[in-house]
Amino acid sequence: MRTKAVAATALLALGLVGCGAEIAPKEAATASAHYPVTVDNCGEKLTFAQKPARVVTNDVNITELMLSLGLADRMAGYVMPDDKGKIDQVAWKDGYQQATWLSKKILTKEIALDAKADLVFAGWHYGFDEGSGVTPQAFRALGVDSYVLSESCRSGKGTERGVMDPLEALYTDLANLGEIFDVKDRSDRLIADFKARIAAVPPAERRPSVFLYDSGQDKPYTAGKFAAANEIIAKAGGTNIMGDLADSWVTAGWESVVRRDPEVIVINDYATPKAEEKRKFLTSFPPLADVAAVRNGRIFVMDYVDLVESPRNPAAISALAAYLRTVPAP
Predict the structure, then answer these.
(1) Looking at residue 5, what is its pLDDT?
(2) Which residues lie in coiled coils (predicted)?
(3) Mean pLDDT across 152-156
(4) How is the chain split into domains, by residue range?
């Protein structure tokens, strides 16, 4: 996590570059030595001839992967709603001030082109979508590179997502960004810090069963095996009742929830509907009346960005672990 002192240092460095100091030629020399670089992204080899300078990111989690590595100066801007993220509470909040908020709506090709993007960093269902025509292939045709969030990688079975364990996806993206932007020292330190923080979470005496509720009333939208939430639950000492579904975020059935009788429900809190609306629905929905989590009032709210691949995952694991340790044996 970054401090204001670090942010100030970064701003000073940017100021020197803007004043025409000798930093620019030195950076160019470094770039020529480091590039080209090739990384593996969702099974595809991506080669970069130079460090991207005008990156457009989609959604708070992807934006914060860049900011956590101190890469605000390489961003043309970000797209995300104003009700996500609680950006004033994160250690890299100063990075948000350096980058430009391009839109509070959805990522479009026009937004990226107007920002003169040379790289779009998004993911399947995190900005990329065939229905809207906003895809890596579409950007490639326009001469703009793309990088796909590893949590969202397609498995090759239709639109199913997930090709690696969710935390491995986080570490993969941080390592790849370290190579792409020639900040491997930063990415190595961040990965090591995250692994150490997660390893330090006290082990659970037992593993309470957990249902992740994202949305949906006719059918619940929840976290499968390859969603970051699945591994967050596991590392926190719980068991995701839908962890056998080989997808990331996926629609299930209420019958399955009732049959698996979770001891805890985790609500994914984001724009619409709000967490309290979701809680009201869950506690008044007749089929769930006898489910242990509802019967005992064990409903825990977590922020959206805690539960998708992001640099907030280690803190999310620690917070959920503390709650799960309070759940008594049945």
Answers:
(1) 34
(2) none
(3) 92
(4) 4-198, 204-324
Q: How far apart are CA 240 and CA 223, in angstroms?
A: 8
Number of H helices, E strands in the chain: 14, 14
What global pTM score does this model have?
0.88
We find that the CATH architecture of domain 4-198 is 3-Layer(aba) Sandwich (3.40)
φ and ψ at residue 13, rounded to 5 degrees? -60, -40
Topology of domain 204-324 in CATH is: Rossmann fold (3.40.50)
Which of 71, 39, 44 is closest to 55 using CA atoms?
71
Pairing of strands 145-148, 127-128: unpaired
Convert the pLDDT of each residue in 227-284 to its tens digit. Answer: 999 999 999 999 999 999 999 999 999 999 999 999 999 999 987 788 999 999 999 9
Contact 42/21 with Cβ under 8 angstroms? no
User: HSE-up of 6 (CA within 13 Å, CB side)?
Assistant: 15
Q: For the beta carbon of residue 215, count every other beta carbon within 10 angstroms.
A: 18
Q: One fold for both 4-198 and 204-324?
A: yes
